[in-house]
Design a protein that fits this description.
By secondary structure, the protein is an alpha+beta fold. It has 3 helices and 17 strands.
């Protein structure tokens, strides 16, 4: 059972148990006079202040909501049975579909043990060869996630991106598959992704957005661009190859043909 389904069931039961109590007891949610203009229309957004998860007021409000929820959910008599039942249905050893590389015999695939919180990225030198664990987020920090995995055409390298606390901001590094050595290569910008390797492993194309200070305040969430990184070269030499000068909301990507002769933006 997916954890989101489990959460929905618990929240539904909590809603039933709270119905007779009414709004009394719920944390006060303040309204602001914040608004913004969308296509010439002024839109009120009185709860916009809740989007700042670092604000002490937001954290206090969140703790109060969690305490209220826990007071009802933890006391439900059927909760223990549901946790045990859903854990049995959802927690089991699993393995994803193997993905062979385009040029060679190496295989990459995902796996997850019963006790794991995160999926693990593995490889085999060839079909039937021993499995090798490459990237295991279960051994990382409690808030680290593996958001990007893109092996080169022959599987010699893997570009992978580590994000934190669900920030959707993977920082891409490159691993040498056979040795698990992390290369010193880094990339430009933030929210890095969309890796497309050259067939000869000379480098790869990727997507990134500008850092704070490179564009007007707040616009670092826009201006998606495609860059080319030469393997072994510093990030400062990465070339921006495709972008838009005027429309900041455009999102760009690059698709490389198998022989590397043409690229589609």
């Amino acid at each position: 059972m997916h954890p989101r389904i489990l959460a929905i069931v618990f929240l539904a039961m909590a809603a039933v148990s709270c119905r007779t109590a009414g709004p009394k007891g719920y944390p006060l949610t303040q309204k602001s006079d914040f608004s913004y203009e969308l296509h010439g229309v002024r839109v009120a957004d009185p709860y916009q202040w809740l989007e700042n998860g670092k604000d002490p007021k937001v954290r206090q409000w969140t703790r109060a909501q969690e305490n209220l929820a826990r007071a009802h959910l933890d006391a439900l008599p059927q909760r223990a049975w549901l946790v045990k039942r859903f854990s049995k249905l959802w927690r089991y050893d699993d393995e994803g579909v193997p993905h062979p590389v385009l040029q060679g015999d190496r295989i990459f695939y995902w796996s997850k043990k019963k006790a794991d919180e995160h999926w693990v990225y593995n490889t085999r030198e060839r079909e039937g060869a021993p499995a090798v664990e490459l990237l295991n987020p279960n051994h990382w920090g409690p808030h680290d996630t593996l958001d990007v995995t893109e092996p080169s055409r022959d599987g010699k390298y893997v570009a992978f991106g580590k994000a934190q606390k669900g920030d959707e901001n993977p920082v891409i590094r490159v691993m040498e598959t056979a040795t698990k050595r992390i290369l010193p290569d880094t990339l430009k910008g933030w929210k890095q992704g969309g890796v497309n390797w050259m067939p000869d492993n000379s480098g790869f194309y990727y997507i990134a957005q500008p850092l704070k200070g490179e564009v007007p305040a707040g616009e670092e969430f826009y201006w998606s661009s495609v860059y080319y990184h030469k393997l072994g070269a510093p990030a400062s030499s990465d070339e921006k190859v495709f972008w838009h000068d005027k429309v900041k909301v455009y999102w760009h990507a690059a698709g490389l043909r198998e022989d590397g002769k043409y690229i589609l933006y």
